[in-house]
TrEMBL record:
Lipid bilayer topology: Multi-pass membrane protein
Any GO MF annotation of the entry: NADH dehydrogenase (ubiquinone) activity
Record family assignment: Belongs to the complex I subunit 3 family.
Signal peptide: 1-15
Enzyme Commission number: 7.1.1.2
Protein name per its UniProtKB record: NADH-ubiquinone oxidoreductase chain 3
UniProt organism field: Scriptaphyosemion bertholdi
Reaction catalyzed: a ubiquinone + NADH + 5 H(+)(in) = a ubiquinol + NAD(+) + 4 H(+)(out)
Claim: Mitochondrion is one of the keywords in the record: yes
Key words of the record: Electron transport, Membrane, Mitochondrion, NAD, Respiratory chain, Signal, Translocase, Transmembrane, Transmembrane helix, Transport, Ubiquinone
Chief site of localization: mitochondrion
TM region positions: 54-76, 88-108
């Protein structure tokens, strides 16, 4: 047998052995919390149509907005090699100023307060 065939046989045997042992090794003692469909603390006997807070979606959108800011500013170091790097700095500063003003506006309006 060649070296490659020996290595493949060892890998397949070891993988099959570990897969079989993983079924018999853990002790499964399910309790009431593990058997419920929701393990995150929601009451499974209540209504499944409870509305989410709109503030949750606002925080998620703000996170995506600032994540997009990072994606837009990521190529900034390569932009300094252009013929006019002042324009690159101007547009990057414009993006940062607009996002900062938007954040200040949301903060003043109370949009970032989680509790009402």
């Amino acid at each position: 047998m060649t070296l490659i065939m020996t290595m493949m046989l060892i890998h397949i045997t070891l993988s099959a052995l570990l897969a079989l042992v993983s079924f018999w090794l853990p002790q499964s003692t399910p309790d009431h919390e593990k058997l419920t469909p929701y393990e995150c603390g929601f009451d499974p006997t209540g209504s499944a149509r409870l509305p989410f807070s709109l503030r949750f979606f606002l925080i998620a959108i703000l996170f995506l907005l600032f994540d997009l800011e990072i994606a837009l500013l990521l190529p900034l170091p390569w932009g300094s090699h252009f013929l006019n790097p002042v324009m690159t700095f101007f547009w990057a500063s414009t993006i940062l100023i607009l996002l900062t003003l938007g954040l200040i506006y949301e903060w003043v309006q109370g949009g970032l307060e989680w509790a009402e």
